[in-house]
Amino acid sequence: MRIKLNNHLLHYSTAASGIAGCAVIAFGLIASASHYTRSMPYSPQNHFISELGLATASEYSFVFNSCLGIGGLLLMMFTNGLGIFLRAHPLAWYASYIGMGATLSFSAIGYFTADSWAAHRMAAMVFFSGAMISIVLFSYCMWQNERRRMHHFISLQGFIIAILFLLALIWPKELLNQSVNDPANFVRPELWGLTVLEWMYCFMIGSWILTVSGDMIYLLRKKEAALPTPESTRI
Q: Which end of the chain lies in a sparser environment, N or C, as judged by fewer CB atoms within 10 Å?
């Protein structure tokens, strides 16, 4: 009974870590975006997320970068716990290890801001690719796992994330290269497809984490409700 109780607490803490991680990151995004100082207002339709971490672009860039660091560590706990929750499927462990590497890189993005372009780009690439692989593997495990019976909508979200990643990968990068290598002559478009894809990709990752966390709590409470109470076991 104590082992089951410890497992339940671990699973609840996993879900809580996922929700808390998303909340911390969302707070950092909103705080930095609402104190954006450049002439053009900040908008997801033509600004990258990492621009919120530049001290020259936002008065609250330090809040954004700190929230990435803290949020990444919380999501690392979530990823590790999800691997334990789905441990019946052998691929869950691979998904967990890859996901923990991706969340560590996510925290590193808050340290290596876009001012340090080479390190920032490397951390971002590891996060984006690692998160996609981890989520697809987890989603496949959920689709196959009859014991946990997580909602198939979660798996569908995971495969949409993979499609968005592939679209961003093949999207033309000329404007991005010009913004980095020749910022003096760079003219920001009113609608930039690459930034929209990045926002959609990150939004879907957050949505997937929150949906997984919510479904975990639902399954745990459903299981608890099905357990016999002390009164029902009395003769």
A: C
Has residue 77 been placed in a domain? yes
Would you say how long the chain is, in residues?
A: 235
Q: Is residue 232 part of a domain?
A: no
Return d(Cα 203, Cα 26) in angstroms, integer: 10
- Only one residue has tokens 């920001």, namely 188
The answer to whether residues 135 and 165 touch, using CB atoms and an 8 Å cutoff, is no
* 162: containing domain: 2-226
Domain for residue 119, yes or no?
yes
What single-letter DSSP state applies at residue 45? T
Kindly report, residue by residue over 87-128, the tens digit of the pLDDT. 888 899 999 999 999 999 999 999 999 989 999 999 999 999
Q: The pTM is what?
A: 0.90
Domain count, the chain: 1
C-alpha–C-alpha distance, residues 103 and 93, integer Å: 15
